[in-house]
Design a protein that fits this description.
It contains 11 helices and 14 strands. The protein has 404 residues and is an alpha+beta fold. Helix 1 crosses helix 7, helix 6 packs across helix 7 and helix 8 crosses helix 11.
């Protein structure tokens, strides 16, 4: 990308100075930062090994992280609040490879109703997550999974991503994401920030439905394990129908505030993994990744804002995402969610992607090449440019991506 179209980010305030955007108020306490400067790929928050926290935590934060590891890996049972309908019995059952917090091989079902002008996630009918398992007490009554909510017009399969570096994504300021959205890249790429009804910017979930990591973590306990908690204190239903009596064996909330706080700390300060050392092929692939403009959406480096945890404050990290919603074409359209239309998906961060065995939002792509082939809509020109490379150059790009 030409240098005069690159963006510069003020480290302290998280504001961009953009040649193609209206002027913004700027407060600088460090030199401007260009996230497309390839030299910045070597400046990032990483861990000594997967599954460890970021450096610079206080003693209390490290202790809370250690407690969070135990809660994250703890398997719930029906007497402790599991279900009665659920997808997994623990966080670690899905986020497990190669360590706690890594990706998993589970694929779940989401549904919603899209009228063309509004999106209804069918919450009153058990949506948007359709839970695929049930506790023994419910199975004895003939209910082995949640029914599909009535009125669903779209179904989406969702694979289990890693949660490495999620606290850094949370700490990127809303202003920064909005500034990225004001960019107009070549090739018709024009992502938009997922501005939620309360004015905050969504960034978590395949459709950027949730703005804050604490809400996302609390929602995962409820939606994936059926475990009520301070943010989700009321037991769920079976597609809107009350559950049979005497099957919910634990009083609500089934997860206390201290355990939720510890789990949130574990996910929040879990460090991104360090990329592998680049081979000659992967180094060439990094240049080609930029040359074909994959970086229009998979922005190599982001910076956090004034996070409440000092170790996450004003830090560079290799997100390989712009955290924006993009149109991936009608061929990928499945369901709406939040402010995202069926054909829109948030750019998936690529940090830690080498640990995945399947790719894309639904886990249906077995290779990186297949995942790229499925990039339609705004990504069509970039996809075609990739497949216009020689086979050896395509392999070099894949080698780079699988080093992350």
């Amino acid at each position: 990308m030409p240098r005069n179209r690159s963006m510069q980010l003020a480290v302290a305030a998280g504001w961009f100075t953009l040649a193609c955007a209206a002027p913004e108020p700027k407060v600088f306490s460090a030199p401007p930062f260009d996230p497309l400067d390839e030299g910045n790929d070597t400046i990032a928050v990483v861990s000594a090994s997967p599954g460890t926290p970021v450096f610079g935590l206080s003693n209390r934060q490290r202790q809370l992280f250690a407690r969070g590891v135990l809660v994250f890996d703890d398997s719930f049972s029906s007497v402790r609040g599991l279900g009665p309908l659920f997808n997994s019995a623990s966080c670690g059952e899905c986020h497990e490879d190669p360590v706690l917090g890594g990706p998993g091989d589970e694929v779940e079902v989401h549904v919603s109703n899209f009228t063309g002008s509004s999106c209804e996630t069918l919450d009153a009918l058990g949506g948007p997550v359709v839970q695929q398992d049930a506790i023994p007490e419910l199975q004895d009554l003939g209910i082995v999974s949640e029914d599909t909510p009535q009125g669903a017009t779209g179904t989406g399969l969702r694979s289990t991503p890693a949660v490495f570096g999620m606290g850094l994504l949370d700490a990127v300021s809303d202003q920064t994401i909005k500034a990225i959205a004001r960019l107009r890249w070549p090739d018709g790429v024009h992502g938009r920030a997922a501005i939620l009804p309360d004015g905050r910017v969504g960034r978590f979930g395949r459709k950027a439905t949730t703005a804050r990591l604490f809400d996302f973590n609390a929602g995962a306990f409820f939606n994936e394990m059926g475990v009520t908690n301070p943010l989700n204190p009321v037991e769920g239903t079976n597609a809107g129908k009350p559950l049979p009596p005497n099957v919910d064996l634990a009083p609500d909330p089934e997860l206390d505030a201290a355990s939720l706080e510890a789990t949130d700390m574990f996910v929040r300060v879990l460090s991104p993994v360090a990329p592998l050392p680049l081979t000659g092929e992967a180094r060439r692939g990094r240049q080609l990744f930029r040359q074909v403009r994959c970086t229009s959406c998979h922005l190599p480096v982001l910076i956090t804002g004034n996070a409440s945890i000092r170790a996450l404050r004003f830090r560079l990290f290799r997100a390989y995402s712009d955290l924006l919603l993009h149109d991936l074409g009608d061929e990928n359209a499945d369901m709406c969610n939040g402010v995202a239309n069926p054909n829109e998906f948030r750019t998936q961060p690529l940090m830690g992607i080498r640990f995945q065995e399947a790719f894309m939002h639904d886990g249906a792509s077995e290779t990186i090449q297949d995942a790229i082939q499925r990039h339609g809509g705004e990504a069509s020109v970039i996809r075609d440019r990739f497949f216009g490379l020689t086979p050896s150059d395509q392999a070099a790009v894949v080698a780079f991506v699988l080093s992350l």
